[in-house]
Amino acid sequence: MPARVQLDPFDLGTELSGFGTGAGAVVTFTGLVRDEDGRLVALEIEHYPGMTEKALQAFGDKAAERFGLSDWKIIHRHGRLEPGEQIMMVATASRHRAAAFEGAEYLMDWLKSRAPFWKREITPDGPGEWVEAIQSDEDALSRW
Amino acid sequence: MVVDVLYFAWLRERIGQPREKVETEAATVRELVAQLSAMDDWHASALSDLSAVRVAVDQELADLDAPIAGAREIAFFPPMTGG
């Protein structure tokens, strides 16, 4: 499956081995947990098993069709993640670079506000608030 | 009909459980929300501001007026924060 949700870290080299064979361009994006100036102990990421995988697969299929991607991959982690750890990655492959870049941005914009993940900040005082969705992420969808 | 109702993130915490089976005759999500809100204060509080709640019917995003006839699984959760 090109879309995966997992607890464990992933290895970019392994994930990209054989990815996009025959394409002219491969773009990857990796999201990391920010340390928020030392305020953050960890992020806890909850998701909706079943729906998440279906949603990621649907985003990938749509991106492949729209941008003519020859290959794509999405990995998103859940559970407790500490600053500096990987949260997720997307990779896209296409004949020329513009489509691979655009496809990756499209996937990121959809993932941010339409994939059923929720983040909560763990601070030195314990579990904090759930991270609120931000309007700019919602607005980013309108360009597609 | 009986549906599985699922809650995530702060809705799960406020309601105090991740899922429950609900016997309902509701025709739409909105009618189901009214039924759930009448169950107790926890449901009422979690579902009081629907502008902060998103819904999925059988794992597809849906709006409050979506029909739920024949649905098996209805989920309520806050706006998503992936990526």
For the structure shown, list the relevant keywords:
heterodimer, A: 144 residues, alpha+beta, Aldehyde Oxidoreductase, domain 3, four-stranded mixed beta sheet, four-stranded antiparallel beta sheet, 32% helix, B: 83 residues, Ubiquitin-like (UB roll), five-stranded mixed beta sheet, globular, Molybdopterin synthase catalytic subunit (chain A), molybdenum cofactor biosynthesis (chain A)
How would you characterize this protein structure?
Chain A is α+β, with helices and mostly antiparallel strands. Chain A has one domain: Molybdopterin biosynthesis MoaE subunit (Aldehyde Oxidoreductase, domain 3). Chain A contains 4 helices and 8 strands. In chain A, the strands form 2 sheets. Chain A has a 4-stranded mixed β-sheet with strand order 1-4-6-2. A 4-stranded antiparallel β-sheet of chain A has the order 5-3-7-8, with no helix packed on it. In chain A, helix 2 packs antiparallel against helix 3 (97-114). Chain A starts with a strand and ends with a helix. Chain B has 3 helices and 5 strands. The N and C termini of chain B lie far apart (36 Å). The mean pLDDT of chain B is 97. Chain B has helices at 9-15, 29-37, 41-46; strands spanning 2-7, 19-23, 54-57, 60-62, 73-77. Chain B is an alpha+beta fold and 83 residues long. Chain A: It is an enzyme of class 2 (transferase). Chain A: It comes from Paracoccus litorisediminis.
For the CA atoms, what is the radius of gyration of chain A? Answer: 16 Å
CATH-defined fold name of chain A: Aldehyde Oxidoreductase, domain 3
**DSSP helical segment count of chain B:** 3
CATH class of chain B: Alpha Beta
- CATH first level of chain A: Alpha Beta
Number of domains of chain A: 1
**Name of the CATH architecture of chain B:** Roll
In the sheet with the most strands of chain B, the strands line up as 2-1-5-3-4
What is the CATH homology-level superfamily of chain A?
A: Molybdopterin biosynthesis MoaE subunit
Helix content class of chain B: 25-40%
Q: Note the main sheet of chain A.
A: 4 strands, mixed
Which structural class should the secondary elements of chain B be placed in?
A: alpha+beta
CATH superfamily of chain B: Beta-grasp domain
Number of DSSP E strands of chain B: 5
- End-to-end Cα distance of chain A, whole Å, is 25 Å
Beta-strand fraction estimate of chain B: 25-35%
Kindly report the spatial arrangement of strands forming the biggest sheet of chain A. Answer: 1-4-6-2
Shape descriptor of chain A reads globular
Percent range for helical residues of chain A? 25-40%
Using the 3D structure, state the CATH architecture of chain A: Alpha-Beta Complex
**Count of discrete domains of chain B:** 1
